[in-house]
Structure formats: structure tokens, C-alpha cells
Design goal:
This protein is mainly alpha-helical. The protein has a domain of about 100 residues. It is built from five helices and no strands. It starts with about 25 loop residues before the first helix and ends with a helix.
Length: about 180
Amino acid sequence: MTTPPIFPTSLSYETSYQPFLPTPTTASKSLKVTQEQQLRRNTKNEQAKKQQTAYNSALSLAKSMVNQVVQTFFMLWMTGNSIQIFSLIMLAMAAISPIKSIFQIGGLFSKYEKMGANCFFPKFLYFVGNIICIGLVLWKCNKMNLIPLEWLENDKYLHSYQYYNDQSSNGILQSFVSSLFR
């Protein structure tokens, strides 16, 4: 049996060049198995990267709400405590925006959950940021005297209840201590 030359001597495309040693069938099978395993590993890594990217995007969205808290506080602080049309409009916008955002949390984070990211913490952070904004709005309403808290000072039933509780618990203790030092 003669071995074919290493370099073809003619420029014909019909030459059938056979390698010196045929590849064993077991090697080709193991090569296919390792290629399949590598393909599975690559798809798992790609899915993990997509999930991590989706989680980071959801977290950055939630952190933007925390930045919005600072902006809302500054805006409400700058409007002043007097009741004017500008300050009332700013107060209304600061109140409506977080309420709308709370109701839209599920739809806002759904695209990240479809990518496989666990969005519990970003949703929680976004929710807390909106609740803080609502608290800031209530604080501003109190500063503008839009929340009537003065009626509690003039309530005779509330004061009689407090007087009764003071007499029943602290009054006895105070009378005992004052009797010791007479």
C-alpha cells in the first residue's frame, strides 16, 4: 500500500486525499459529547448573565426612586409654607406621582421578572421610596397647615381622658413620692 503524497501534485479538485490514520469512532462520539456539554454550559452561563443584567437593571430603577425622594424633598422645601397656586400644584404633583407609582410596580418590574431575575428587593426598595415621598407630602401639608391638627388641642373629651389616665397611674406615684419628702 502506497501512501499518498503530502502535497498534491496536480491541481485537480477530484483528488481523493485520505488522511494517514482514520479517526476512531469513539473519539468522534466523545468529541460530540464534549461539544454538547460545552454548549449546555454556555447557555447556562448566558442565562445567568441575562438574569444578573436584568437584576442590575431592576435595582438601578429602584435606586432612581431613592434619588427621587431627595429631589421631592428639595422641591417641597423650596416651595415655601404659604398657600399659593404654585406650591399647591407642586404639592399635588408630589402626592399623585408616588401613588401612581405604587400601583404600577407590578407592571414596571414584570419585564425583569420575565428575564428570570428575582425582583423582590428592588420592588421593596421602590415601594419604600414611594412611601417616603408620600410621608414628605404629608409633612409639607402639615407645615402649610392643610392638615387640621389644632382641633385635637381643643377637644375636651381628649383632655379629660388624659387627665383621668394621669390621675390613675402617675398621680398615685407622684403623691407617694411627694409624701416621702414632706
